[in-house]
Design brief:
- The structure is a single chain.
- By secondary structure, the protein is an alpha/beta fold.
- Helices cover about 30% and strands about 20% of the residues.
- The chain has 13 helices and 16 strands.
- The protein has helices at about 10-15, 65-70, 85-100, 100-110, 115-125, 145-155, 170-175, 185-190, 210-215, 235-245, 275-295, 330-340, 370-375; strands at about 1-5, 20-25, 35, 50-55, 75, 135-140, 160-165, 180-185, 195-200, 220-225, 245-250, 265, 315-325, 345-350, 355-360, 380-385.
- A seven-stranded parallel beta sheet has the order 8-7-6-9-10-11-12, sandwiched between helices. Strands 2-1-3-4-5 form a five-stranded parallel beta sheet.
- It starts with a strand and ends with a strand.
- The mean pLDDT is about 95.
Length: about 375
Amino acid sequence: MRKIHCVNNISKCGTDLFTDQYALTDSIEEAQGVLVRSASMHDTQFPESLLAVARAGAGVNNIPLERCAQNGIVVFNTPGANANGVKELVLAGLFLASRDVVGGINWCQEIKDDPDIAKTVEKGKKDFAGQEIMGKKLGVIGLGAIGAEVANAAAALGMEVYGYDPYISVNAAWGLTRDVKHITSADTIYEECDYISVHVPLLDATKGMINSETISQMKDGVVVLNFARDLLVDDDAMAEALKSGKVARYVTDFPNPKSVNMKGAIAIPHLGASTEESEDNCARMAVKEIMDYLENGTIKNSVNFPNCDMGVCRVASRVAVFHENIPNMIGQITGILASAGMNISDMTNKSRDKYAYTLLDLETKVDEVTIEKLAAIKGVCRVRVVK
């Protein structure tokens, strides 16, 4: 029986997929798998039994990825599962920023006791009129699952869309409408676009990417939308830009003590992926990933180990070896198996940055002594018998 621990509440649409070979547990100490949403796990002590963590969402900054990798714990996320929900909120952000809908609603509440409110609004509505987005230039930085959908939807609404992503995947490129102009420098977006929407992961290279320098390149009166990660935007630089009028509106899905007090900012309470449909989709995807890994050793959508898929094991045994991405690992692994008289019927080795994953199908059952020898190889993080 495989034990699964849910750190956050996970949609039953996902947990109901577990077969009778699985059981949910309230204790992480006995878990082979963990499902998590937004709860921080940086201070969590992981038991030796833990094999995988699946994040029901895209961002994984709440999980200690390096520590997990060192211990051979695979971390999954669910890219694209919440893309439509976030896309719809980005579109709402575009409208809220271009037409001062929030200001108009608040004003109506302020004058709600006016007996002549109908006449009053007709006289004062020009202060909240705004402009249409059709024909305006939108720059989308990051063309992953969400960015691509935002770009396509905005193009369908008649916007002139510029897309920038130096690491765009083939699948993402095929999914873009031909109306999206794929450019090779973010500077073009900063200099030419009326609206800029950021959809990149939070990395050392992207932290604070919207700052005083990049804002200075932007058109006067630009609108900036951030539905990706809070720290992509330098709050102090944004506050100054809003104050000076360089940035007309800043729409963020990540309220913090600074952004909620910026005049001209529209702070939304992190609603991007909070739809019922998004939570269900993320839960289903996370559960399928963790089940396929625990049952077959398959890795798909991991953020700390390479993807690897050998299907269902049809022979006597399958062994997974997590190790550092260094020379002569395969030679040492196969040498130990050969000395034990074990024939390899199928094998694959994949690497990602500092770490690699080797999956081996064996024609005979692997014994404990051989596993101990594999685990003793310098640079091996973990050896797991899948079957």
